[in-house]
Each structure stands twice: as structure tokens, then as C-alpha cells.
Amino acid sequence: MSASTSSANAFTTPAFWERFWRTSGIQFVGLFIVAYVIYGYQPPVGASADALVAFYDGNRTRILIAAVISSLNILNLMWFAAAIRTTLADAGQDGWGAATTASSAALGALFLLLVTLGAALAYSVAGSRDNTLISALNDLAWACVVLSSFPRAMLIMAGSFGLWRARQISNALFAAGVAALVLVLLGGTTWMSDGFWAPAGMYSRFVSPIIGLVWIVVVSRVLLTRSPATRPGW
Questions:
Q1: Residue 227: its pLDDT value, please?
Q2: What is the domain range of residue 131?
């Protein structure tokens, strides 16, 4: 009985929950990859009506499953930002912590809009065969992907600068964070009509997201190596 009580008490301690939420960044990366694979290859800007209907109507179940996983994953993004926020608050870097919260909220809103567009197209819009509306919503989704570069870059900036000022990361990791910031920010310029620098091109679809995911994993490891603080807020 005492062993069971001790185990139950362990799950109610602030230190347990703080450490648990510090793994949310790694959980986000894992679920993001799973949802990305399930969702499949979304047609690019200007795709034909047949290609759009074939993707959204023909892969309805896959897209809706990916929408559920992605929506759940937004919670991991919020908790990841909260873990950075509390770490920076402990170190007296509340300004950078507030920037982390603001950027994650903006990114989460855009992420939710992207999920909503995909789910709406798969659930009913594509089945209506309204080619003009389908094309417009698909193009809007890609525009949101490009514009999401800015809150993603702000999140990287706030986390990197804040953790560096808090002496939680080395100069080398800070320099890597600045490089990631610049590379992700460049994703906001991918407005070519086709090719590598198009909204649906390799840079916007793969390079920029991978840089962001790697940054999240690195920061998550930094957070996990720090001893959780004992505070009543968790």
C-alpha cells in the first residue's frame, strides 16, 4: 500500500510535471513527422482541378486522421513554449519569455488554420467539385505555410537569445540558433511561381521545417538537462 501511495504521489509533484512538459518539444517533433507522412503530398499552387479533387477527396480518411494528430500536436507546441518561458523566468529573462509565448501563439494559430483548411477540403469542399473554391483554399494553405516562417523565426530567436542570455546554452549553440533563425526567416521569401524557391518547393516544404524541428530537439535536450525547479505553478 505504501509503495502504491508513493508512486501516486510522484505523479503529483511539481518537479514531475515540469520535467514531463519539457519533453513536449520532442513529442511535437515525433507527432509532426507522423502527421506529415500520413497527410501525404499536397498539390502545389496552381495545381489542376483533377489533381486537387484526387488528393483531397481520394485521401479523405488520411487527411482527417492527420488533422486530428496535428490538432493534438498544437498542445505540445504550446507546452514546449511554456517550458522555455518558465526556464527564462527563473533566470530573470522575462522579456524573451514573453516573446516565446507570443510567437508560439501566433504559430499555433497559423498551424490550426492550416489544419482547418486541409480538413475542410477533405471533409466536404472537395466533394462539392467547386473547382474555383478548392483551388483558392489550396493556394491559401500554401501562403500560410510561407507566412508561418515569421512566427517560427521569432520563436527560434526568442528561445535562442533568451537561453543564451540566461547562460543555459553555449556560444556555439547560440551561433547555431542565429543561423537557424536566418534560414527559417528566408522561408518567408519563397514566392517563386515554381521550382526550389516556390511555396511548395523543396526549401519551403522540407528544408525550413527540418531546421525548425532540429532546433526544437536541441532546445528540448537543453531543457531536460536542467534540474526542474520546485514551484507551485505546476
A1: 58
A2: 18-225
pLDDT in tens, 93-148: 989 999 999 999 999 999 999 999 999 999 887 677 778 888 999 999 999 999 99
What CA–CA distance (Å, rounded) separates 160 from 175?
9
Residue type, 83: A
* Three-class HEC string of 97-110: HHHHHHHHHHHHHH
Distance (Å, whole) CA 207 – CA 145 = 13
Which tens digits make up the pLDDT trace of 197-224? Answer: 999 999 999 999 999 999 999 999 999 8
Q: With beta carbons less than 8 A apart as the criterion, state whether 99 and 162 touch.
A: yes
Pairwise CA distance, residues 96 & 165, whole Å? 9
Distance CA 11, CA 20 (A): 10
Asked if residue 219 belongs to a domain, the reply is yes
Please check whether residue 212 is in contact with residue 184, taking contact to mean a CB–CB distance below 8 angstroms.
Answer: yes
Angle at which helix 149-165 crosses helix 94-120, to 10 degrees, equals 150
Output the nine-digit C-alpha cell for 27: 513529442
d(CA 18, CA 84): 11
Is 7 part of any domain? Answer: no
In this structure, is residue 230 part of a structural domain? no
How many domains are contained in the chain?
1
Reference 177, options 105, 100, 110, 115; nearest CA is 100
- Alpha-carbon distance of 154 to 105, in angstroms, equals 11
In a domain, 12, yes or no: no
Of 118, 111, 113, 110, the closest CA to residue 64 belongs to 118
